[in-house]
Amino acid sequence: MTNAEIAAVFREIAALLEIDGADTFRVRSYQRVADSLESLGENVADIYARGELQKIPGVGKSTAKKISELLDTGVVAAHQELRAKFPETLLEMLSISGFGPRKVALVYNELGIKSVEELEEAAEEGRLRELQGFGAKSEENLLRSIALYRQGQKRTLLGSALPRAQELVKLLQARDDVLQVSIAGSLRRGRETIGDMDILATSTDAAGVCEFFAGLPQFSEVIAHGETKVSARFEDNLQVDLRAVEPESFGAALQYFTGSQAHNIELRERAQKRDLTINEYGVFRVMEQDERGEKVAGETEEGVYEAVGLPWIPPELREARGEIEAAEAGRLPELITLDDIRGDCQMHSEWSDGHTSIAEMATACRERGYEYCVITDHSVSLGVAGGLTPEQVQAEAAEIAELNEKLRAEGIDFRVFHGTEVDILADGSLDYDDDVLAAVDFVIVAIHQGFSRDEQRIMKRLRAALENPHVDCVAHPTGRLINTREAYAVNLAELIDLAAEHDVALEINAFPERLDLDDVHCRLARDRGVDIMINTDAHDPAHLDYMQFGVTTARRGWLEAKDVVNTRSAGEFEQWLHRK
DNA sequence: GCCGTTTTCGGCCCGACTGTTTTCAGTCG
User: Fold this and answer.
1) Which residue among A11, A158, A268, A433 is least enclosed by CB atoms within 10 Å?
2) Beta-carbon contacts of residue A308 (< 8 Å; ≥ 6 apart)
3) B chain positions with any atom within 7 Å of a protein CB
4) pLDDT tens digit string along A425-469?
5) Model confidence, pTM
6) Which residues contact A65 (CB under 8 A, 6 or more apart)?
7) Domain coordinates of chain A in residue numbers?
8) 115-174 on A, CB < 7 Å from strand B
9) Distance of A97 CA from B25 C1′ (whole Å)
10) Closest nucleotide (CA of A268 to C1')?
């Protein structure tokens, strides 16, 4: 049973308890456990085997018992009892925006409504307005929310949201009455997908800025428009929230709207212990009888953290995954930045399925300030991608040698390495013989077929591949495509151990659809001493810019420059290639 | 249900917004 599956059970227990009217703090405990499990990286089963379940943050005696029960028997009795109490279809109603557990319980208990369909029918017939707290307006809003829910709200890729957010920021910055602008929310934290987009601004004329923003042609709909807040939607339903605050609250508001919620809760609990309270306007002293006293911070984010005795914490770390403890102990990582990257080690040319020549890719890499790049065209079996025969690999090597010659002759300090992205075949063998692999500079292996095999088969293939001494790196280790394709049945904890054992690097593939490894496993790999590479897998010069998303993912995985192979100089990288 | 730089009991982040109410409950982030 995977961590995600166990977390899902705890999330469902929390949801059912909420509908059941349980104490909210009890509900929060279950949610907290689910959050914790999802950000673990390591398999819960292994932690259970060591008898260390209660070391997981938020897991106490009772929830530890439920986790072990789940792992031992496949079910949790308390969960089954809750399920028996309510129709299964009840939970779906919670997915409707603006419809929470109290309302679900109300319509179920009073009108016997058990599903989204029945809810829609009742709203259309005007039967909901009989209920306490409901009116015509709420029925109307509910019908709109149901329609939106039916359109299937997928989270938006970081790579799709960020450019649009930056464009909005630019438009705001161009105004004279706007003082500061920043992206906030999950987009600022660099999550791989975002639910909605948050932008924060300070201004001498907040209402005027809101007016301007609400009128932008980018939006297909303005949902709410007030003096300090605008909510609007792009054509694809992605929601944007703009908030305007006073300049003296910019730091507090930025901290507040950046989240994550879990991080903010931890931060405020910390403030409480110091007789302080934090809200979006600032940090305030708490006086006798809960009276709010003097404001001690708020203009800058640094000030907010300083007020509770902490150094500033980079947004990518603000996920309640131990960053506050690390900050307190002065052990925050010095996170990698885009400037640290000195080469890109996976990209394709027109020799296989890339769009341009090797020389053009090299030029594009130089323009990005790199010292080197590695061309990794596909191997022979990947017919759809124009995989290279061994003879073509040789010919490509000659072209690269010639190009390096030419660069040297022109006095250009840039190096093109010759690599290959080799398929791991169904039986675990590699797509080229060892003599072909020995002749290239860099071997990155990948699974491109046989995705539906079970874990045992997948791991057998990976194990065999990693045992090959020519192998340097595993490309996109899970094969997932966000929102599109699940990962194949890879046991990442085991793969990470194998990578450590055989001195093979793992890739963060920077393509926005992949971001694979993800943040959580990237951190686990680092903890186990595995080398990481951040590569774009570019098939076109423009794709090289995806590097920023790979770096963001690495930052979310607590990586420093020293943890990432391609922050090294060309010379050091070449040494690394000969490490085995 | 969890947790401990006052605590093994009694707390548990904080405010905005909405639609419904005449003071508030529910939802959201």
Assistant:
1) A433
2) A267, A270, A271, A274, A276, A278, A283
3) 1-3, 5-7, 11-21, 25-29
4) 988 899 999 999 999 999 999 999 888 888 899 999 999 999 999
5) 0.89
6) none
7) 3-150, 156-245, 250-328, 338-577
8) 129, 132-139, 141
9) 17
10) B13
